[in-house]
Design brief:
MacB_PCD; membrane; twelve-stranded mixed beta sheet; elongated; Putative ABC transport system permease protein; transmembrane transporter activity; 4 domains; six-stranded mixed β-barrel; transmembrane; alpha+beta; 26 helices
Length: about 800
């Protein structure tokens, strides 16, 4: 029996070779997209899975309920009190710095070692890397303790058994307490060296408001994170508000509302990379991941629709076969199994082809997403094969049951061709396919419009030809270093101007603090700078004046603010100049002397925040944050100028340290990369969807028109013109396309409007994509169907009329 079924299957594959190829092609493309996106998702979910304690470790994120925003920061006293007051919290670890680099000296060599972390002493309790030498116990107990990776050990000493060895950097002597091997699995916490943030922790021990740290908390294995979050609010945040409100003239509840945090979120370590609201090491984009995954599934569904359509369209060709088999005793269940087997063979062949195509495309896919994915995870094969089985059941069962329900007597009489049920089913499924195609066209055009809008929007700042060079970590007095080299670097040929600014467009080094005026508080970014930095970056002054090096008060408490700062306080411009405010980063009042036009330094996805700018000497601690020097280059010969800057830097400023630099406009352009990739993916998916849909439409129209060739021959004999016949044959498909697009318009509008809500600066919903989708699909449908319709008008009349 099975052998007989296989013979019948291959006879039908050969007979309907075009449909077979289209089904193979569509399913292969769909399954390939599904597997690639599934591997991408699986890779994002795999971060920190190596950690045996991952189920007990939770990332802390504070919640500002007023703005509904999250931050990964915490203060030292909050973490310390949390572990003392909340029994479910067993331990915590703090991060104060990552990606650090120092020029390290041993007995034999001096090298620059990068990718270090500054943490609290319980780090290895949370991240038990494989120990190679030394001990994790008390590994970070002292300020001169240092733990290093095997890679760093080989760089410094040429071997890994170096526990107890000495290394010098940052003007201190350190003792190697432990050597560890980093995990092989995906991890964002993979430091080449780990040191204790000794001085910072000592200074911040009582600083409740210094949210300078990232934090993980280790909970009891039976703890409920939601209960712990409630206790954090009641026992920690409200306590902080109570002690800080004393003497401030406001109630503790008012203080909590003004300064927060008003809540927290604890997310398991293994979910922080993709699902965390705010992560010290950078979050993924789960929403985009879901969109990509959904689109890949839609393509598979489109392929399944093609299969269903083509199988039901071929029903008339197999009607007599089914009638004969039923007449000789075959039952309905056997017929369904036979048709499911035929479907499975096509699906399995597509699965094998998709595995080969996925392997072929994987290098380009990895390059696109900057990953190193390999096909070695059994989950990929399991879920993709499960998809094959699902497609087999969905695209096989519907036509199988449909065909198996034929009545033997009617099919043997040849009455099936006049049945209306098959037409209704095919038309309904074709409408669904065209709805999906229309959505892809509309979505692709809207994504393209939004990305182009962001790329062309005036940022209010000009980073063109501005070249930023970063200072190394080894700077005890960085502001003096900046002042020393500033005039020297102006003399380099090709350098037009030199300045410094802390808040750099496209950078992630931002400071945020509360700004208080009377009983009102807002949160604003603040950035130290040189006197002329805003002019240097092309920012426009709306009212007041710039900072002036001739005025001593401009290095004490005078500031510039942006428009949003003034608006959030509810002031007029004149009121802003008369009122003084107190920033959370200092203990003295500040006076506004100038208001600048709003400008973007973050991604256009975010709204412009209130901003305060002041000279780096205005605070006792901000001068220590001077971390770069910026140079505006003349356009004559930029590559040669960069070479001269690099040579001067490596010879006179930081010999032995890497030259870390970038152009600000190119750095800011990286904030668009996610959306440019979405634009590219939508374009690719659009092409795939249209190709699959149009091939399916062509095959379906071919089969349906073939069933009408006798009608065409009769009408042509009676004098119908080719034009009339073509219009008659294509009219049904054009109506189906029109209905599908009209149904897709409200669906597409809703889904794309939800996507646009993520952007603070977005286009208005355009009409053009909806109109173009309708026109384009009508044209393509007519073009595809009319090819077969035109061929139908050239039929041999004798062949179809000789028996009439």
């Amino acid at each position: 029996m099975l052998n007989n079924w296989l013979k019948i299957a291959f006879i039908n594959y050969k007979k309907n070779w075009l449909s077979t190829i289209i089904n193979l092609f569509g399913l292969t493309i769909g399954l390939t997209g599904f597997m690639l996106i599934l591997m991408h998702w699986n890779d994002e979910e795999s971060f920190e899975k190596w950690n045996p304690k991952k189920d007990m470790i939770y990332g802390f994120q504070q919640h500002n309920k007023k703005e509904n925003t999250y931050s990964p920061s915490i203060s030292y006293p909050i973490a310390e009190r949390a572990v003392k007051m909340i029994p479910e919290i067993k331990d915590y670890v703090l991060f104060s710095g990552s990606g650090m680099g120092f020029k390290m000296t041993t007995r034999n060599k001096t090298i620059y070692q990068k990718d270090g972390m500054s943490v609290s002493q319980n780090f290895f309790n949370f991240f038990p890397f494989k120990l190679v030498a030394g001990s994790f116990k008390d590994a970070l107990k002292n300020e001169n303790s240092l733990a290093i990776s095997t890679k760093a050990a080989k760089n410094l000493f040429g071997k890994t058994d170096v526990a107890g060895e000495n290394v010098k950097f940052d003007n201190k002597n350190y003792i190697i307490t432990a050597v560890y091997e980093l995990p092989k699995g995906n991890s964002v916490i993979n430091p080449e060296f780990v040191m204790l943030a000794y001085e910072q922790l000592k200074n911040d021990k009582e600083a409740w408001g210094n949210f300078n740290y990232g934090c993980f908390m280790m909970l009891d294995k039976d703890a409920d994170p939601k209960i712990v979050q409630d206790k954090l609010l009641k026992d920690i945040f409200e306590y902080r508000a109570k002690i800080n409100a004393q003497g401030s003239g406001v109630t503790s509840q008012k203080y909590l509302e003004m300064y927060g945090p008003q809540g927290s979120l604890l997310t398991p370590l293994g979910q922080m990379k993709l699902h965390g609201k705010a992560y010290w090491f950078g979050t993924g984009d789960f929403k985009t991941m879901m969109i990509l995954f959904s689109l890949s599934v839609l393509i598979v569904i489109l392929s399944a629709i093609n299969f269903i359509n083509l199988k039901t369209a071929q029903a008339s060709q197999r009607a007599k076969e089914i009638g004969v088999r039923k007449a000789i005793g075959s039952n309905k269940s056997k017929l369904i199994l036979q048709f499911l087997l035929e479907t499975f063979l096509i699906c399995f062949a597509s699965y094998v082809l998709s595995l080969a195509l996925t392997e072929l495309l994987l290098p380009s896919f990895n390059k696109f997403f900057d990953k190193e994915i390999v096909m070695n995870d059994w989950h990929i094969y399991f879920y993709s094969f499960a998809m094959v089985l699902a497609v087999t059941l969905i695209s096989g069962l519907i036509p199988a049951k449909y065909l198996a329900n034929f009545k033997a007597i009617e099919t043997l009489k040849g009455n099936f061709a006049r049945s209306r049920h098959g037409i209704w089913l095919r038309n309904s499924i074709l409408i669904l396919q065209l709805i999906i195609s229309s959505f892809f066209i509309i979505g692709g055009l809207i994504v393209n419009s939004q990305v182009n809008y962001m790329m062309s929007k005036d940022l209010g700042i000009n980073g063109k030809q501005v070249f930023l060079v970063s200072f190394s970590e080894n700077n005890p007095q960085p502001w003096l270093k900046y002042e020393r080299i500033k005039n020297e670097m102006k003399k380099i040929k090709g350098v037009d101007a030199v300045s410094y600014g802390e808040a750099v467009a496209g950078s992630y080094r931002y400071s945020n603090s509360n700004m208080d005026y009377m009983d009102k508080t807002i949160y604003a970014q603040h950035g130290s700078m040189d006197y002329d930095y805003l002019q240097f970056m092309g920012v426009k002054l709306l009212k007041g004046r710039w900072l002036n090096p001739k005025l001593a008060s401009d290095t004490i408490n005078n500031v510039l603010v942006n428009e949003t700062f003034v608006k959030q306080f509810g002031w007029t411009d004149d009121q802003a100049f008369k009122n003084e405010f107190r920033p959370g980063f200092d203990d003295k009042p500040y006076k506004i002397v100038g208001i600048v036009k709003d400008f973007n330094i973050k991604s256009l996805k975010s709204e412009i925040e209130p901003m305060v700018f002041f000279h780096y000497r205005a605070t006792s601690w901000k001068r220590y944050n001077v971390y770069n020097i910026q140079l505006k280059l003349k356009p004559d010969d930029i590559p040669a100028t960069v070479k001269r800057i690099k040579k001067y830097w490596e010879s006179n400023v930081e010999p032995g340290y890497p030259f870390e630099s970038y152009f600000i406009d190119k750095q800011f352009a990286k904030t668009f990369e996610t959306y440019q990739k979405q634009q590219t993916l939508f374009t690719i998916l659009n092409a795939m969807v249209l190709m699959v849909a149009l091939l399916g439409l062509f095959a379906l129209s071919s089969l349906m028109i073939e069933q009408k060739l006798k009608d065409v021959a009769i009408r042509k004999t009676l004098g119908a013109s080719d034009k009339t016949l073509i219009i008659g044959l294509t009219k049904q498909f054009l109506w189906i396309t029109l209905i599908a697009v009209l149904i897709s318009i409200p669906i597409s509008y809703y889904l794309m409007n939800e996507w646009l809500k993520d952007f603070a600066y977005r286009i208005d919903m355009p009409v053009f994509p909806f109109v173009l989708s309708l026109i384009l699909l009508l044209i393509l449908t007519f073009a595809v169907v009319s090819i077969k319709a035109y061929q139908a008008t050239k039929v041999n009349l004798v062949k179809y009329l000789k028996y009439e």
